[in-house]
TrEMBL record:
<dbReference type="GO" id="GO:0016887">
    <property type="term" value="F:ATP hydrolysis activity"/>
</dbReference>
<dbReference type="InterPro" id="IPR027417">
    <property type="entry name" value="P-loop_NTPase"/>
</dbReference>
<keyword id="KW-0067">ATP-binding</keyword>
<feature type="domain" description="ATPase AAA-3">
    <location>
        <begin position="65"/>
        <end position="198"/>
    </location>
</feature>
<feature type="domain" description="ChlI/MoxR AAA lid">
    <location>
        <begin position="272"/>
        <end position="338"/>
    </location>
</feature>
<dbReference type="GO" id="GO:0005524">
    <property type="term" value="F:ATP binding"/>
</dbReference>
<dbReference type="InterPro" id="IPR011703">
    <property type="entry name" value="ATPase_AAA-3"/>
</dbReference>
<keyword id="KW-0547">Nucleotide-binding</keyword>
<comment type="similarity">
    <text>Belongs to the MoxR family.</text>
</comment>
<protein>
    <submittedName>
        <fullName>MoxR-like ATPase</fullName>
    </submittedName>
</protein>
<dbReference type="InterPro" id="IPR041628">
    <property type="entry name" value="ChlI/MoxR_AAA_lid"/>
</dbReference>
<dbReference type="InterPro" id="IPR050764">
    <property type="entry name" value="CbbQ/NirQ/NorQ/GpvN"/>
</dbReference>
<dbReference type="Pfam" id="PF07726">
    <property type="entry name" value="AAA_3"/>
</dbReference>
<dbReference type="Pfam" id="PF17863">
    <property type="entry name" value="AAA_lid_2"/>
</dbReference>
Length: 345
């Protein structure tokens, strides 16, 4: 009797697993179709930045934050505004300056006098209490102000006057950084850089894209983005991403890439010679989530090693550093990462 009952339970578990797998496949296919509309909606406003749009969407679908690096005038601010509208998120923008204080971002407590002369403190939330925060030129603020974002980015809550205040769900930070005009800036510390899931390089648009942009943005009609998702749908998509299966070969490739980029634990002479320090475990977590998100974004039901190769630079670039001798020899970090990614099976 016990053996018969056990066999029945195993068969039932197998049927439940199969049903769950079919449900996941159906959800992933529906999400891929919806994300196609999201990309099309963004593409009507942002021209010639397909790879940038893909990587930013990967970061948001993975539940993370992104650092956008590019010269002025490439549409970084426009991209964040468009994402807020298309994804149905409450988006706000903070311009980081040297005199910006933590309270200007987090909020502060004010003393109010009520009826009967009773005084009490009331918390006034700052602009960080939104779902999509654009931290414009984040490296222009002081380290004290930059560090105010650390707890918010990692724990999705802030502490003001000893009281914890949860942030809205979802919460994402898209920060911009100008690679030129570095006078008066404060480089982001490694601890904060590691909080960004991806570092997205924003290049100049090609000729065709720049031509289309000129025609679309200098006329009498201005194209406005339209909502393609809701907040609830985005949260469901982020939950689905974490259920996407990852094959053993992809898992091994992620571990080989991240561990192979650490000069302390590798036999690769090139890595030991040119790198001062390598990525930590958070880089492997970022690669795992981002690979899943990229696969779903492309309409696939499981990530491949090609996803790992494609995301190697934006995931690892801000989590490792060249040695002094390598910088003196003109070696570029992107070339090192590309070499390591090409060695994956």
């Amino acid at each position: 009797m016990v053996e018969v009952a056990t066999a029945s339970e195993n068969a039932l578990d197998g049927m439940n697993d199969a049903a769950r797998s079919l449900a996941t496949v159906a959800e992933a296919e529906a999400l891929a179709e919806k994300l196609g509309r999201v990309r099309a909606g963004i593409g009507r406003v942002i021209f010639g930045q397909d790879q940038v749009i893909e990587q930013v969407l990967v970061a948001i679908l993975s539940g993370g934050h992104a650092l956008l690096v590019g010269v002025p005038g490439l549409g970084k601010t426009k991209l964040v505004d468009t994402l807020g509208t298309v994804l149905g998120l409450d988006a706000r923008r903070v311009q980081f300056t040297p005199d910006l204080m933590p309270a200007d971002i987090l909020g502060s407590e004010v003393l109010e006098e009520g009826e009967g002369g009773r005084r009490a403190f009331r918390f006034l939330p700052g602009p960080i209490f939104c779902q999509l925060l654009m931290a414009d030129e984040i490296n222009r603020a002081s380290p004290r102000t930059q560090s105010a974002l650390l707890q918010a980015m990692q724990e999705q809550r802030v502490a003001v006057a000893g009281t914890l205040h949860p942030l809205p769900v979802p919460f994402h930070v898209l920060a911009t950084q100008n690679p030129i005009e570095q006078e008066g800036t404060y480089p982001l510390p490694e601890a904060q850089l590691d909080r960004f899931l991806l570092e997205v390089d924003v290049p100049y648009p090609d000729l065709a894209a720049e031509r289309a942009m000129l025609l679309a943005t200098t006329g009498s009609r201005d194209v406005k983005p339209e909502a393609a998702m809701t907040t609830a749908e985005l949260l469901a998509a982020q939950a689905l991403i974490r259920r996407i299966p990852v094959g053993e070969k992809v898992l091994d490739a992620i571990l080989a890439l991240v561990r192979g980029a650490r000069p302390e634990g590798t036999s690769n002479e090139m890595v030991r010679r040119v790198l001062a320090w390598g990525p930590g475990p958070r880089a492997a977590q970022a690669l795992m989530l981002a690979s899943r998100a990229r696969a779903v974004l492309d309409g696939r039901l499981a990530p491949s090693i090609d996803d790992v190769r494609a995301l190697a630079e934006p995931v690892l670039r801000h989590r490792m550093a060249l040695s002094f001798s390598a910088r003196a020899d003109g070696i570029r970090l992107s070339d090192v990462i590309r070499t390591l990614a090409e060695e994956l099976g």
